[in-house]
Structures are given as C-alpha cells and as structure tokens.
Design a protein that fits this description.
alpha/beta
Amino acid sequence: MKCVILAGGFGTRIFEETRTKPKPLVEIGGKPILWHIMKSYSFYGINDFVICCGYKSNMIQEYVKSFDESWNVIAIDTGLETMTGGRLKRVQKYVDQNTFCFTYGDTLNNVNISDLINFHKKHQLLATVTACHPNEKYGILQLKENLVVEFREKPPLENVWVNGGYFVLEPDIFDYIEGDNTVWEKTPLEKLACEENLSAFKHVDFYQPMDTLSDKNYLNKLWDSNNAKWRLWN
C-alpha cells in the first residue's frame, strides 16, 4: 500500500520557519517532521510514498534523495497554488487502482495505522478519516460563584471530533475532485459525508498538528524529554 503526503502549502502561520524552507522540512528533534510521519507509516510496513510538493518543492525533492531509509519515495511538484484536492488529483497515476493512505505533512499522532486500515476495509466505504480530539487553546476554569474550583490547562475538547488526517482512500475518490482548485476538505469530503461514504476511525490518544512556532516548540520539548508518543520505532 502507498501513502500520499500533502507537502505543498505555504505554511504562513509558522513563517518564522517557512520563509527559508517548506513546512514539512521544519525539524523536530533534528529531523524534518516529514521524516517523522514517514517513520510512523514505515513502522506499520508502509514504505512507498508519494509526496505532493508545491512551495519550495525543490528542497523537498533534494531532501528525499538523501534518505538513509529503505523507502520508495516519489516527490512530485503539484504546483505552487494548487489546492489540497488538486494536489491529490495530480498524483492519481502514482497510486494506480489500489486502496491508499493519505495524510498531511505537518501532523503527528500515534494512531495504529494497521488498525485504521483494517477498520477501513471492514466498513467498505470509499474513505476513512481519523477523527481526533483537538486541544483547547486556552486554560479552562470551572467556577463556583467567584471561586475557581478547577483549572485545566489546555485540555482536549472531549466532545469535539476533528479531521486528524491519516485517511485511507479508495481510488474512486478521484471522481470527487474536479481539478487544481478543489479543496479536499470542502466539496469532496462534504459530498462523501452526505452520501454516507465516509467512515470515522476514532483516535483518542496523541494528536498534534504543527501549525505555529509554539506547536513546533512543544513537539521538540516532547522529543527532548523522551515523551514523543508518536515515536513507535527504536
């Protein structure tokens, strides 16, 4: 099975880093976050990758040439302004007519990818998304009149599920993508959901996007303190 990774965005919310490099090459523990994502898939036996490049695509293409891993990697320039769905459409020929994994190049979690794939096969729908609890951006106070009786620093929103990436898709999903301007998270996913063709694999453990410099620093702190829950490999 192949894994397609979106790695083409501008990363404007973490411009402190992305002014000189594409977001997937921002380092966690001395290695690009892209490497961490690929190591996670490789742990579950997925070693064939198609990387959808865009912004500073040449840097990603050069980086993958230096991999000291037994992976098959193709890095494709899918256009500077192409939307997420359009990028996926542009690499259609590289996934053939097989079930494949699809994820973002800036998000880490410790989802069991084998369980995710088995879940997808069991439900026999066109698409499966990993549903995760997001972290609250602020500390939560529970009040009793003027007294704080509980304080929780940025807890997960346990009653909310979000798109955590880590999709498993059937090749027929390409019929839902019109072209470069299609945003994967808009019409394709909305239509799949409306048709009841999108299943949700619920993941309640570690999930962390790297959207900002604060997120990057947090992930590095976890790595440096040996608390990187996404690190399943030795």
